[in-house]
Structure formats: structure tokens, C-alpha cells
Specification:
Length: 389
């Protein structure tokens, strides 16, 4: 009974979030393994045919990436808005360290990627692929150590990954967006204006927002701009509500999170992570550039930006954390996966390039996860020895 009472007291929004993300990370691993097994089995042809199966004028793969992933981007948008209005990013002081770390964690991998592919200008378009962190995978690995990792580091990684997602959204909208159909895009802007009016008038029922949001998604899809950005636009207009209350934003976030974690993202992995190992040989410099950006660039950028922010007095390191623990978390930031695969699909549409992107993302992310976990286990053992002493 006493243990149950202590557990209930320990639970909170962050605890629940981390537990859900850890379970989501496990589902992503299983879906990825299933995709790899299908792509390297006698069922490979049927697997590829299923992804190309036309449904309503679009391939099934397109409905996963443009349709279901809109729910993922809607959830990401809701999480970003909540963090800025009522979470760990609500003050400049709290946001400073993860914001600077996220910026360094995007710039350095991009520069390393460009340095590796400098001899092949056609590959320069992929510089955004190694700049993203997969929050579900990263927090899932961190959760393996449980309370042996300081809570401050979990908060730091959550905030950093949230801002990293925001950077990826900006990249997709600005750099990887196709030339739009301006008349249709004007209609989409009109739908967005209706959402803003609903927000300004204090409408708290979710149904009107979701109905107009569906229209917005259809118009954005038809305009040529990537349809998933409609999810982010919708999220920006959902009201948070009063602090401490279950307002519209929190209600929608809590309703969406399990569906995204256990259906949308596993289906995305199942559809996009299928790498035929035989076809990956001779993939050229692209996988190396992506893996280098994730495994080397991410931790260098995060650690370097963090050290600079602390030295300049702009921010303080996560409370109670050691340098070795911060190195382990920085390595986990190199787990790209979902966003990296998504950006890679936008950057390179040729089938051969797709396999090279998968090889680089999967290889770099796996290496970052294993190294990060090893460093964190070592740090936890040192902490345990100090505690015993």
C-alpha cells in the first residue's frame, strides 16, 4: 500500500509522458524490424506492391505519409504550443539551454553532411536529413535506465527534442515545400483564418476546429504544399484553456497521443523502414553523410552549444547531471528515424536514393542509440559507486 501511494505521488505529466514515449519507442522498434524482415523475405514483392496500391488516386504509401502523418504533426504542434505556454519552455531562462542545444544540434550535422557530400552537388539537398531527433526512440532508450538518470536530463531531452521538431517543421515548410498552386493555397489560408476566428472568439469545443481542420488539410494537399503542415497550422489555433484545467489543447493531445504512438508511427515505420540489404550495397556516399551527421554531428552540436551557453552565462547545465551523462544524452539526440526518414523522402524521391537514406538513417540512429545507452550505463554505475561510497 505504501509503495502504491508513493508511486501515485511520483506520477505526473512528465512521468506519464515518458512512460508513453518509452512504450511508443518499443512499438517503433518492432515495426522497424517487421519492415526489414518483409523487405528481405520472399514476400518483398507483395510488400512493395501493397505500398504502391492505388487508393483514391494516391498510393497507399502516400496516404500513410500525407494522411496519417498529419496526425503526428498535429500532435507535435500541440506539444510545442503547450510547452511554450505552460511547460518547460514557458520562460526564456528555461528555454535558453534546450533552444541553443537544439540549434547547435541542427547546424553541426548539416555542415558535416555537406562536407561529406561536397564532391556530389546533387546530394546537397539532403542536408536536413541528419538534423532531426526522434523523441520516442530517444526517450525510450533513456527510460531503460529508469530513475538512475537525473530527472533534469529527461526534461532537457524532452524540451530539446520538442524544439528540434519545431526546427524540422520549419525546414519542411520553407526548404522542402513544392511550388504551390496559389489559388488553392489561398483557400487554405481562408480556412486557417476561420480557425483563428474560432480561437479569438473563445470557442472551446473541438468539433468546429476539427471540421475546419479537415477542410484545411484537403486544400493544403491539393495545393502542392506538404499536407502534414496542415496539422501544425491546426494545432496553433487550438486554445490551451485555463492553466490547471483540461482545456481543448490538452484534451486533444491526450486523445491523440496513444493513436499516434501505437498506430500512426508504427505504420509509418512499417511503410518506410523496409530496406532491402542486397540493394543497399554500393549506395555511395549518401548513407555515410547521413550517419556521420547523426552519430558525430548531433552530439558535437548539442554538447558544443550547451558548453557555450553555460560559459557565456546564458544558461545553466541540467541540475545534478554529470558531463558523462550529458554526453550520453547528446548521443541519444543522434537517433533520427521518424523525422529523418520523412525529410529524406522529401529530399530524394528516386527509389535508389530512398534505400541509401534508409541505410544512413537506420545505421546512424542504431549506432547513436547503442553508444548513448553504453555511456549512460557507465555514468549510472559511477553514480552508484559514489553513492555507495
Amino acid at each position: 500500500m505504501a509503495v502504491n501511494r508513493l508511486w501515485r505521488r511520483a506520477r505526473g505529466p512528465l512521468t506519464d509522458f515518458l512512460r508513453l514515449e518509452a512504450a511508443a519507442g518499443a512499438c517503433l522498434v518492432l515495426a522497424t524490424l517487421a519492415a526489414l524482415a518483409l523487405a528481405n523475405s520472399p514476400a518483398q514483392g507483395r510488400y512493395q506492391a501493397l505500398l504502391a496500391w492505388p487508393v483514391g488516386g494516391h498510393a497507399l504509401l502516400g496516404w500513410v505519409n500525407d494522411g496519417l502523418m498529419t496526425l503526428f504533426f498535429l500532435l507535435v504542434g500541440l506539444e510545442i504550443k503547450r510547452e511554450f505556454l505552460a511547460g518547460e519552455l514557458r520562460t526564456r531562462r528555461r528555454a535558453a539551454l534546450p533552444a541553443i542545444a537544439a540549434l547547435g544540434g541542427m547546424l553541426v550535422p548539416a555542415l558535416l553532411y555537406l562536407a561529406v557530400v561536397r564532391g556530389e552537388p546533387a546530394l546537397a539537398r539532403g542536408w536536413g536529413v541528419p538534423t532531426a531527433t526522434d523523441i520516442a526512440f530517444a526517450l525510450g532508450v533513456l527510460a531503460l535506465l529508469g530513475p538512475r538518470v537525473p530527472r533534469s536530463l529527461k526534461v532537457f531531452l524532452t524540451a530539446l527534442a520538442t524544439l528540434d521538431d519545431l526546427g524540422a517543421i520549419v525546414l519542411i515548410g520553407v526548404y522542402y515545400a513544392a511550388a504551390p498552386s496559389w489559388p488553392v493555397l489561398a483557400g487554405a489560408l481562408g480556412a486557417f483564418a476561420v480557425l483563428l476566428i474560432l480561437n479569438r472568439r473563445g470557442v472551446t469545443r473541438l468539433a468546429p476546429y476539427l471540421a475546419v481542420g479537415a477542410v484545411l488539410w484537403a486544400l493544403v494537399l491539393a495545393s502542392g504544399v506538404h499536407a502534414t503542415l496542415a496539422g501544425v497550422a491546426l494545432a496553433a489555433t487550438i486554445p490551451l484553456g485555463e492553466v490547471g484545467e483540461a482545456g481543448p489543447l490538452r484534451r486533444l493531445e491526450h486523445a491523440l497521443h496513444p493513436w499516434v504512438a501505437f498506430l500512426v508511427l508504427p505504420l509509418f515505420a512499417l511503410a518506410n523502414a523496409g530496406l532491402p540489404f542486397g540493394g543497399a550495397s554500393g549506395a555511395g556516399v549518401l548513407p555515410l553523410a547521413i550517419a556521420t551527421g547523426l552519430l558525430v554531428g548531433k552530439p558535437l552540436g548539442v554538447l558544443g552549444a550547451t558548453a557555450l551557453a553555460v560559459r557565456l552565462g546564458i544558461a545553466e547545465p541540467p541540475a545534478g547531471s554529470t558531463g558523462l551523462e550529458r554526453l550520453g544524452v547528446a548521443l541519444l539526440c543522434g537517433i533520427g528515424f521518424t523525422m529523418s526518414l520523412f525529410i529524406g523522402g522529401l529530399a530524394f524521391e528516386a527509389p535508389g536514393r530512398g534505400d541509401a537514406v534508409r541505410l544512413g538513417v537506420l545505421g546512424g540512429s542504431l549506432a547513436a542509440a547503442l553508444l548513448g545507452l553504453a555511456v549512460l550505463v557507465l555514468a549510472a554505475r559511477r553514480r552508484d559507486r559514489r553513492g555507495a561510497g
